[in-house]
Amino acid sequence: MASATNVPNHFLASLSSDDSDLLRPHLRQDNLTLRSILFRPEEQVHRVYFPTAGIISLVVGLSDGHWVEAGMVGRNGVVGGGSALDGRVAINQAIVQAEGSSLTIDTEVLSRLVSASDTLRAALMRHELASYAMTQQVAACNARHELDERLCRWLMLTRDLLASDTLPLTQEFLAQMLGVQRTSLTLVARTLQESGLITYRRGHIQVLDAVHLREASCECYGAINHHFERLIGWRPFEPGN
Amino acid sequence: MAKYFFHIKTGADLIKDDEGSEHATLDHARSQALKTARELWADAIKSGKPLGADAIVIADEQGQLTFVPLYDALPKLPEPPAGPTEGDG
Question: Which candidate, A111, A173, B65, B76, has a CA 20 to 30 Å from the CA of B87?
């Protein structure tokens, strides 16, 4: 049987045809509803997600009620995969940042399948490493980089995952994900707008010049992509395409 | 809860906030604006870039405006150290 290269999730499409055959009978298509929470910290993860459209943010909650983003996953990867590798419970919260759809599998079933296939387990391990590399990069980025370059990095990653120049985002949400006040974001977004990189209208951002938006991003955009390319062969959609 | 808009005044320009956010009272919205102002100062000082704003203008849904100058967010400066007074008078 042909491998699932027509599957619009990079991780699934990258599996060998044997591993695809193992997974296929257990996959179910689910909607990703905006702002729905897929799992919370310390909770049992019942389903593992392979998004085909939309974005899921991995966020860390602090005791002051703020949530800050540690990473995002879309059509490139997997959400909750660690639980099938015996992670048992969620370490952070997964929330739908941009609505879409996902293929999903029962965590226990996936756990059984990775015990049966070394190559499937290795693929999932590599993905979890890429995800770990992303959150480490984001930690360094949040500590050292300025808001304007972090915002550009964030918009570029979002654009890659959505494969679209139209990003449905409110400033409130974006500010929360980047751990800043909304007004700080308004000010930085205005500067990007004046430079002709984006336009912002209530509820969505339009990328006008991806080449320069990428240049205005900190190195973390390239670093995150590099990890994903090296570990799971993911290459985002290039600016100008 | 009521909706307040946080416009940014920069010179003669006003950057409009068209999303707004919910706050219990105007006082709460004002303390939010001060928190934002502190963040704007901090970013400007750390990056060495211009402040980019001189006040946050809070508008309620009736269009009532409250000005929060960025200067209001500065911490109290310490007294200048007592130095030689020669030449001061």
Answer: B76
At B84 the three-state DSSP class reads coil
pLDDT tens across B25-68, in order? 999 999 999 999 999 999 899 888 888 899 999 999 999 999 99
**CB-based contact A189:A121 (threshold 8 Å):** no
Of all residues in chain A, the one with the smallest CA distance to B56 is A183
Domain A10-141 belongs to what topology?
Jelly Rolls (2.60.120)
In this complex, the residue of A146, A190, A202 whose CB is nearest that of residue B19 is A202
What is the distance between the alpha carbons of residues A146 and A216, in angstroms, rounded to a whole number? 11
Look at residue A127 and tell me whether its pLDDT is greater than 50: yes
Give the architecture (CATH level 2) of A144-232. Orthogonal Bundle (1.10)
- Mean pLDDT of the region A61-87: 92
Sign of CA dihedral B60, B66, B67, B72: negative
- Token pair for A62: 């602090």
Window 48-77 of B: residues touching A by CB (8 A cutoff) are: 52-53, 56
The mean pLDDT of chain A is: 92
Q: How far apart are the two ends of chain A, measured CA to CA in Å?
A: 32
Q: Considering the entire predicted model, what is its pTM?
A: 0.89
Counting beta carbons within 10 angstroms of the beta carbon of residue A91, is it exposed (0 to 12), middle (13 to 18) or buried (19 or more)?
A: middle
Residues A77, A127 contacting (CB under 8 angstroms): yes
Length of chain A: 241
Complex confidence, ipTM: 0.81
Could you tell me the residue ranges of all domains in chain A?
Answer: 10-141, 144-232
Q: Do B40 and A171 touch (CB under 8 A)?
A: no
Query: A10-141 and A144-232 share one CATH topology?
Result: no
Residues of chain A contacting B19 with CB distance shorter than 8 Å: 170-172, 182, 202-203
